[in-house]
Amino acid sequence: MNTAAKPLVLHEDRLFPSDPAQRAIARRLYAQIAGLPIVSPHGHTDPSWWADDAPFANATELLLVPDHYIFRMLYSQGIPLDALGIPRADGSRAGVDPREAWRVFARNTHLFRGTPSSLWLDHVFAEVFGLGVRLDAGTADHYYDTITDALKTAAFRPRALFERFGIEVIATTESPLDPLSHHQAIRDSGWSGRVVTAYRPDPVIDPEHEQFRPSLERFGELTGENVYDWDGYLRAHQQRRAFFAAMGATSTDHGHPTCATADLVPAQARALFTRIVAGKSLPEEAELFRAQMLTEMAAMSVDDGLVMQIHPGSFRNHNRALFDRHGRDKGADIPMRTDYVRALKPLLDRYGNEAGFRLIVFTLDESTYARELAPLAGHWPCLFLGPAWWFHDSPEGMWRFREQTLGTAGFYNTVGFNDDTRAFLSIPARHDVARRVDCAVLAKLVAEHRLDEDDAAEVAVDLAYRLPKQAYRL
Amino acid sequence: MNTAAKPLVLHEDRLFPSDPAQRAIARRLYAQIAGLPIVSPHGHTDPSWWADDAPFANATELLLVPDHYIFRMLYSQGIPLDALGIPRADGSRAGVDPREAWRVFARNTHLFRGTPSSLWLDHVFAEVFGLGVRLDAGTADHYYDTITDALKTAAFRPRALFERFGIEVIATTESPLDPLSHHQAIRDSGWSGRVVTAYRPDPVIDPEHEQFRPSLERFGELTGENVYDWDGYLRAHQQRRAFFAAMGATSTDHGHPTCATADLVPAQARALFTRIVAGKSLPEEAELFRAQMLTEMAAMSVDDGLVMQIHPGSFRNHNRALFDRHGRDKGADIPMRTDYVRALKPLLDRYGNEAGFRLIVFTLDESTYARELAPLAGHWPCLFLGPAWWFHDSPEGMWRFREQTLGTAGFYNTVGFNDDTRAFLSIPARHDVARRVDCAVLAKLVAEHRLDEDDAAEVAVDLAYRLPKQAYRL
Amino acid sequence: MNTAAKPLVLHEDRLFPSDPAQRAIARRLYAQIAGLPIVSPHGHTDPSWWADDAPFANATELLLVPDHYIFRMLYSQGIPLDALGIPRADGSRAGVDPREAWRVFARNTHLFRGTPSSLWLDHVFAEVFGLGVRLDAGTADHYYDTITDALKTAAFRPRALFERFGIEVIATTESPLDPLSHHQAIRDSGWSGRVVTAYRPDPVIDPEHEQFRPSLERFGELTGENVYDWDGYLRAHQQRRAFFAAMGATSTDHGHPTCATADLVPAQARALFTRIVAGKSLPEEAELFRAQMLTEMAAMSVDDGLVMQIHPGSFRNHNRALFDRHGRDKGADIPMRTDYVRALKPLLDRYGNEAGFRLIVFTLDESTYARELAPLAGHWPCLFLGPAWWFHDSPEGMWRFREQTLGTAGFYNTVGFNDDTRAFLSIPARHDVARRVDCAVLAKLVAEHRLDEDDAAEVAVDLAYRLPKQAYRL
User: Which InterPro entries does the annotation name (chains A, B, C) (predicted)?
Assistant: First the structure.
């Protein structure tokens, strides 16, 4: 480490408004929620971490390779993914030394100035690894060694970190085809950490998914149902949902390109499914089938009580050459304009007034916050708004979410925070950012005499802890 | 009332920025406009209140039943409308005690934290009824009794409140089929309050309105014109507009699903109308007819000087089951994406440069503020922007309106505030919120040295008083 | 000048937040960049000004007639363009005295309160002409005389102003048909000012351009190529691009109605072009041809290194009567909703990963900042975001640009500021506004402990100076 290293300090007032009146209120509100347990009802961590409790390999494997926020930003400035050790579509890797990949990252930290990645990373570096200098070209090796050495110790094993982070419950996301053996192993181990799954059936629902046909076949094998028959296919879902629920799941998750829903009469739905599995459907029927399946999933949620989530609006794999070389989920998904008003009406007209039904909707199209989503959530009893998500999980994005939904939906038609991440170490950082921003939003309301401070304190606890537990039935 | 009741205080600086420099300026600006008379050029109060001057019944009937902002929020959390005494579509009511309905509301005031409803309600409670404690489960009966008792007194009769509120003029909204007998009664009574009507012809213009056919028939009876003939139909409009103008109307109002306008040659318009009234039109021709009629209304405005308003973009009655049970206007209308650029061009190309023509356009799609509406209003001489409306009448919504229209349209292509409400008692509260927010916006400009304070003071008076009078020719 | 004239003072802290913590930081950051040279990589100044160095005529000709921001605002309030001396489509003018036109403007300065025009004008009045009182009806003649007199002096000739303004380099924009004789004259003169051109081929690319056919003919004459043959047409572009590059151009600019791109196989492209030049194309093929040509221009940029710019989304000449009377570019262009995700994919899939290729994209649809443009720029190596543009160049618009792109694209996928103006005297004012707003944005990040102040200072210099030079290869 060179002697010119810059200090890294997490300021205790970070993300609070600099106006003294607002800052003082934000501090007081935050003090009451900073230590609350983490409830993580939606995310993509790997359950094998807690099943096996094996140490993480090194800084690059832990922090760089799984974080598409980081490597897409580097790629956007002309750095090849191979130089960062990102796997190829066939599972192979360029023969890059992980330390070299880390140095490339370290030389380019200026790209992240002002982004949420820099907030999360600094939190991880300072709080989890106790690093006191900034990451840059001069400190790259110091960082790499400090982190990699720490990972060899017992305190940095997955279960130890889970406990240190104060996680009360975390949900992973699995395909219906997953045997949930890691979740079973966690339960069998006697470890007290609560890790639950969530039912994400996209591969057996989306006829355009590249794995649709083999997935459907495996779906049939696993359930013993004739999944090429409409009734058998629906029973297979019911069966796997029941299994997931038995393994702790309280929710389902649906990542469709749009939010379209349909409510076909049963004979039409059956005929559509028959054309789909026979490979005789028209191109636009894939969309109609996904739409119908959202309504079928809603029907099952009415029965089994699993909370339904829809995450629409991403154009997947926008870069063809990069997809061919490196495969899915490599930072090349781009949001699209998304309609909710007409799209959700068939499902809502069918089940939207059912007492036990709960539907959490997310968006990547912020123009719908005030125009569509807050009005929908501010009317329909089943409907709740998921938090600012993915491209919108910056402090600015969280402010926009609150400022554009508050007037019509209030706080109580929202569900608190989702970290939605594969980057395990960033989970406390992400929840901390969300809690700080919510306290800042509330502090502004208090400072402008729109909300009493004791009421704001209650809202702060609700957003950080009570609402996610309640909304997700955790 | 229990002893733990929380105090209710309207802070004198509410809604002003907490930054001391901005707050001091906002205070000074507000002091100059706080006492200006209320000009309410667009709204939905019931003229029979001032015609009959009968007392309001009780707290629930006055404040809860007519306010869809409140009962839709309660419905969104699973509270049936019947539990609140909201009328059914057939006019019947669930046999709910109004005091019980009020208690349900009182137990759920947390839902309104941070919403404009809480601002308006607190203002009504504190300023109009002198209540000094917050509404909650413990104070529900105290509230119900205090309000209901007050309503029995002379000071809380409609005319007395009108005068107490400092209303200089208020516009109601009536169908062309309305005989305007309440307005006549107000005039005949010798009372000095100025209550005018506005011409809202949707039921006789929209072929998809459920009351279109009977409305058309009544339109013919009322005017003595053959309204099944294109010329007679247009003459009927001219006649009713003249009658409305004679009864004080200075404006028309058009609540179409989109902002589409058309400029058909007369023979096409006539043929379209003939197909419409013969029930032989194609489904898309209803939209074309509404579009053509906006241009016909503009033509009549050029002649008779009535200011034209378009309020587009609402998907009406999104909840089918609720509509079947409770009917229209029950908080289930949801905004939609709205285009203005192509939509308005036919009307604007025809009449947009006419010296006497004035068109005020509203939106429920905030993404059009900076992109479409401010550029249109910043060019076309006839065009003015209506204020942040309905789902966007929160302080945040008003800030977005100003921040997204100011750069291109300035302040002087806008028309000041509309309260647009049926909730009579909230009118002073709503105007007060708008005035405070405008002062806050201006204070920021002054504090950032973009506007001299004396110019800001002139703008504040213009927005609160001069512009609405001038824009609406009141 | 009357005695009641109001003082005009440019406050040294203008546009900085009034919060003392943020303001102090903003001041320090701004002090480090206020004196940096102006890099103006995109604009519409007239190269003849520096070729001929002739004096400007008077206040009205210099400041009012070329500034569509000003005369469209006056028009929006009913002032005819003829009263301002704006030329007609046929080149004639209403016989208006320029001093009278100036007085009309002076009487209406309240319309510009809070708009960017008022910021720019005040800067020009105070800094360039040393005026110490505000423009209004009472000071109109004082202004007119002061400015008109100054323009007669050597210090106010175009080259002297260029040097006084500290312009390091400025780009103009020319059609491929332009002989660039003014640029040649500037070079031949030995004057040291750097004025470069940019290649704007819309008239020979857009089949719907009113001058398409004569432009194409002239394109052939100028290049000696058979431009009615696809290969000859492409060679003509290559030849003119090379000529423009030799005259200093480092970029091309494309002002299409949409951002649509296409990647036809060569035989299809050839056949399409053949139909276009034969006048036998379908209406929708004009759009397809423009789309294909963007990809052809990208191919040429890969070869010759010219940086490509796309400025989509304007509905041109929205007011038919005004267009007939006064022609193009008279403040009647209105932004439209614009898609980028699907539109850019063909071009990006073809050239988006090429190492040397650089594409700068602009928008008039702010709803795409966070949803589409920041995610695209935060992934694709070729892609950079142009600054807040035209209708969005207000301080509020610049804040929205930063707050909505920062999280996903960071600062380093943006390119600093473009003034994009014909209004020469406003150039220092416009750059000053952009620098102040960027310092304000950075100050907020520093004050909220999200960025170290030394890093913010580096970003401030990058945005004001290094990034535009680097992005545009200047």
Answer: Metal_Hydrolase (IPR032466), Uronate_isomerase (IPR003766)
Cα–Cα distance, B210 to C208 (Å, whole number)? 44
Beta-carbon contacts of A123 under 8 Å, excluding residues fewer than 6 positions away, are A10, A426, A428, A429, A432, A433
Residue A95 has pLDDT above 90, yes or no: no
Burial label for C192, CB within 10 Å (0-12, 13-18, 19+), is: exposed
Q: Does C351 touch chain B (CB under 8 A)?
A: no
For residue C379, which residues of chain A lie inside 8 Å, CB to CB? 72, 75-76, 318-319, 331-332, 334
- Whether A76 sits inside 8 A of C377 (CB atoms) is yes
A113 and C341 within 8 Å at the Cβ level: the answer is no
Residue in C110, C319, C394 closest to B379 by CB: C319
The nearest CA of chain B is from the CA of A338 a distance in Å of 10
The answer to whether C461 contacts chain A (CB < 8 Å) is: no
State the pLDDT at residue A400.
98
Task: Give kind and range of the element (H or E) at residue B38.
Answer: strand B38-40
Biggest CA-to-CA distance, chain C = 74
Chain A CA closest to residue C442 = A114
Distance (Å) from the C-alpha of residue B125 to the closest C-alpha of chain C?
A: 34
Measured between beta carbons, the chain A residues lying within 8 angstroms of B113 are: 410-412, 451, 455-456, 459
**Distance of alpha carbon A142 from alpha carbon A148, whole angstroms:** 10
Domain ranges for chain A, please list them: 20-56+157-471, 57-156
Inter-chain contact B394–A377, Cβ cutoff 8 Å?
A: no
Asked if B14 and A370 come within 8 Å (Cβ–Cβ), the reply is no
Q: Checking DSSP bridges between strand C195-196 and strand C251-254, what pairing results, if any?
A: unpaired
Q: What is the mean pLDDT of chain B?
A: 97
Q: What is residue A283's predicted lDDT score, i.e. its pLDDT?
A: 84
Which residues in chain B are contacts of C366 at CB distance < 8 A?
A: 367, 370-371
CA distance A197 to B249: 63
- Of C390, C403, C466, C468, the C-alpha closest to C437 is C403
Please answer whether residues A229 and A241 qualify as being in contact, where contact means their C-beta atoms are separated by less than 8 angstroms: no
Task: Report the chain A residue with the minimal C-alpha distance to residue C456.
Answer: A113
| Distance between CA atoms of residues C111 and B413, nearest Å | 8
Site from A319, A389, A432 to mutate, C interface, most C CB atoms within 10 angstroms: A319
Question: Is the CB of residue C459 less than 8 Å away from at least one CB of chain A?
Answer: yes
Between chains, do C397 and B447 touch, taking CB under 8 Å as contact?
no
**Please, what CATH class does the domain formed by A20-56+157-471 belong to?**
alpha beta
Using a CB-CB distance cutoff of 8 angstroms, which residues of chain B are in contact with residue C78? 355, 381
Each residue of A215-237: pLDDT tens digit?
A: 999 999 999 999 999 999 999 99
User: In which element (H, E) is residue A171 found?
Assistant: strand A167-171
Check if A20-56+157-471 and A57-156 are the same fold.
no
Q: Is B24 exposed, middle or buried (0-12, 13-18, 19+ CB in 10 A)?
A: middle
Amino acid C390 reads: W
% helix, strand, coil for chain C, step of 5: 55, 5, 40
Tokens read off for C229? 């043959």
Write down the CATH number for the domain with range B57-156.
1.10.2020.10
Task: Decide if C406 and A393 are in contact by the 8 Å CB cutoff.
Answer: no
User: How much is the pLDDT for B210?
Assistant: 86
List Cα–Cα distances, B472 to B202, B239, B378, in angstroms. 20, 21, 19
Q: Enumerate the residues of chain A whose CB falls inside 8 A of the CB of residue B394.
A: 406-408
Residues C309, C415 contacting (CB under 8 angstroms): no
Whether the CB-CB separation of A75 and C381 falls below 8 Å is answered with: yes
DSSP, residue by residue, B227-288: TTSHHHHHHHHHHHHHHHHHTT--EEEE--SS-------HHHHHHHHHHHHTT---HHHHHH
Give the ipTM of the model, two decimals please: 0.97
Using DSSP, state whether C274 is helix, strand or coil. helix
